[in-house]
Amino acid sequence: MRSRTKPTTGEKPASPRKAAIAKLIPVPQANGVDEADDKQRVGGVQSLGRAFSILEEVARHREGIGLAELSKLVGLHNSTTFHLAKTLVSLGYLRQEKDSKRYRIGRPLFALAASALDEIEMVNVATPVLEELSRQTSESSHFAVRMGDAVVVIARTSGPGAFQLTDRVELKPSTPKSISDVGALMREIAEVQRTGVAFDDGEFNMEVRCVAVPVTDFTGQVIGALGISGPIWRLSNQALHASAQVVQAAADRLSAEFGAKNATERAAPKAFTQKA
Q: Domain for residue 250, yes or no?
């Protein structure tokens, strides 16, 4: 007998994106056979696992990656890799260059990652790195981001003393050492861009010295700065410059946590020892 059940009125057809996802996760048919359902579920999970392996491998190759190399790295036959990659392209999570046919990460994946990287998550990720940096340098460490015309410290750990860095720093002169001349400021910015390290010798607080380096994310964009700060009587200029390598290594670790490529390939320095 034919079923008299009528289709639900007003039911919209599946969107192209949902249809593509359905290819990755087969929907079990209502045939009452549990064994068949289990096989389909296993097949769907396996396809998802393979799809994520492909995404992760493509993400590691910012210059793009071809089908043959991709198949080899994920351990799948070319045809299997091709069909999974084709579905991911249709979803937008991968894109394929017209000329070279190399696969790259698509914009929707960047959007997902960016939306997950909120301030709370950044604090959770940064705190262990800051704690280790304070143990290595015996100074206060901090992770700051720019918000409008201010630099805001969103995570920090204390050193051995009572010194604490201000949570919010306005981008304006604070001490006689603050750089207020436009030409001098541009030269200082150019030098920081060249070396990747910024030093503060009493420019915000006459009694404080700081060193900071940039932290980047999976797109290669700078998302903040990680550094240490201490009183001038404990953190001499010599000690400040000597600590730059340790701070850079900590920033590399944090950048790697945010998905930056090759951030952990620099040699890890030994614990920093201050000099008088």
A: yes
